[in-house]
Amino acid sequence: MGLPLEELLTLPALARARLLGGDPRRRVSWVHVVDLPDPGPWVRPGQLVLTTGYAWPREEGALRGFAQGLAERGPAAVALAVPQFFERFPQAALEVLVPRGIAALELPWEVPFAQVTEEVLRHLLARQLSLQERVQTLHRALMQSVLDREDLGAFLQRLSQLLGRPVHLAQAPQGLAVPIPLGRERGGYLVLEGEGEEWERQALENAALVAGLILAHQRALAEQEARLGYAFLDALLEGRREALTPERARAFGLDMAGRYRLGLLLLPLPLPLNEEGFQERERVLREVRGILRRRGGSALLSVNLNQVRFLLPEGLDPKGFFLELPGPWPLYLSRPRTLSELAGALEEVERLLAFREPGVYLYEAHLVPRLLLGDLEARRELLARLAALRQAERASLLAWVRQGFSYKKAAEALGVHLNTLRYRLARAEAKLGLSLGDPEDRFVVELAVRIWVLEHKEDA
User: Fold this and answer.
1) Which residue, among 329, 358, 361, 333, has the nearest Cα to 346 in the 3D structure?
2) What are the residue ranges of helices labelled H in 260-364?
3) How far, in Å, CA of 288 to CA of 293, rounded?
4) What domains are defined for the chain?
5) From CA 337, how far away is CA 343, in angstroms rounded?
6) Strand, helix or coil for residue 313
7) What is the Cα–Cα distance from 279 to 446, expressed in whole angstroms?
8) Type and span of the H or E element at 359
9) DSSP codes joined into one string, 62-124
10) What's the start-to-end Cα distance of the chain, in Å?
11) CA distance 415 to 207
């Protein structure tokens, strides 16, 4: 607030004043004439104090005490009219005022205090009015941002242009910072780089209110979008075909012909959720939504207690997605499915919930671990692979496993030519989607065969 003393010294009434020491950059907010033995009650911080020195003590010790009391009131400057009661500004007073940055001035006696007061106040009020008009003009321009439905980025760009200095959003105060009100919360801080003047602070305070309106509007839109997204995703997972239309799919950025994995994040939050748990889940939702958008996916999510569910495009790398998550949580993913086939995806990811260590769990890659944990569905899936083979192909596979993976012994046991066996096994390999030369795939085949033999005595 106020103006620098050095600017006021250019006024006609103060042009002949002599600066003896102190900080000429101190800001003057008012001017006041004080000629009393105890000036303290009449002096305020930032004032330019005019005095004849009539009531000042003459003895050096008393004068220092008088100056000390004056300095404690924090005036911007003290102007003493000379020569009359003092030939010059007393050294004892200078030694108290100047070290504190309080400017000490000698003003020619013939300069009327009334002229100084009038010119300084007129200048202060004119500047204040100009700044208020500037703040109001800036405020109207910022309100136009709301009417134009600008996002926060465009708003900050407009604000920076109007102020002529960069303004950015920060989560912690730094430099000249003004909090953004957002209901009971704080939406961050508007930060002006470098030191700012009082009018710039006023402008930032007005801008913070406008930024709060923009953030509140964006939050309302995001919440509405999220509610619609929750309902749409839940409808797809429940198999409600009437919910899936090309228009709705396009609205949520989905490809009707594309394939998606259902992703499920299990958050380490105590149930039932408390207020902190709800806030943490909302934070994770925002993070996941941001990752999906950055990677070109659809920000279609839903929640259930401590679970966050979303769709991951088949072409999006699950490992890379996992590495961007804000926490080390287990990420469960169903097999890739079309939008119309998502009804069984939730059951798939829920079968993976037995694995609780942080990491990526693909449904199709955890068939054997699920089987070993007693998942009956994994057992059915494993046997279904063999059931899809022709009788001759399955018999060749059973003989090959039973003969310790020896092609020659298996051919002899079946009474067929070795090339015939190799042909049948190649066809079985293609249908199973496995590599019989891979040790892990071979283990899956052997496990499936052993279970098949136990359940189908006639093929043993």
Assistant:
1) 333
2) 275-294, 318-324, 345-350
3) 9
4) 3-111 (3.40.1390.20), 132-218 (no CATH), 256-362 (3.30.70.2730), 376-459 (1.10.10.2840)
5) 9
6) strand
7) 48
8) strand 359-362
9) HHHHHHHHHHTT--SEEEEEESSS-SS--HHHHHHHGGGT-EEEEEETTS-HHHHHHHHHHHH
10) 96
11) 88
User: For residue range 353-382, what is the model confidence (pLDDT) as tens digits?
Assistant: 878 888 888 877 776 677 666 666 767 776
Q: From 432, 358, 365, 359, select the one nearest 397 (Cα to Cα).
A: 432
Most confident of 65-69, 311-315, 334-338: 65-69
Model's pTM, two decimal places? 0.44
Hey, what amino acid is at 31? V
Give percent of the chain above pLDDT 70. 85
Residue 370 burial (C-beta neighbours within 10 Å; 0-12, 13-18, 19+)? buried
Angle (CA) 442-446-448 rounded to 5° is: 115
User: Residue 203: which of 172, 163, 171, 243 has the closest Cα?
Assistant: 163
For 4, the token pair is 């620098």
- The residue type found at 172 is A
* 121-126: Cβ within 8 A, 24+ apart: 121/30, 121/31, 123/3, 123/8, 123/11, 124/2, 124/3, 124/28, 124/29, 124/30, 124/31
What span, in angstroms and rounded, lies between the C-alpha atoms of 54 and 81? 10
Is there a contact between 107 and 50 (Cβ–Cβ < 8 Å)?
Answer: yes
Residue located via tokens 């959720």? 273
Secondary structure class of 18 (helix, strand, coil): strand
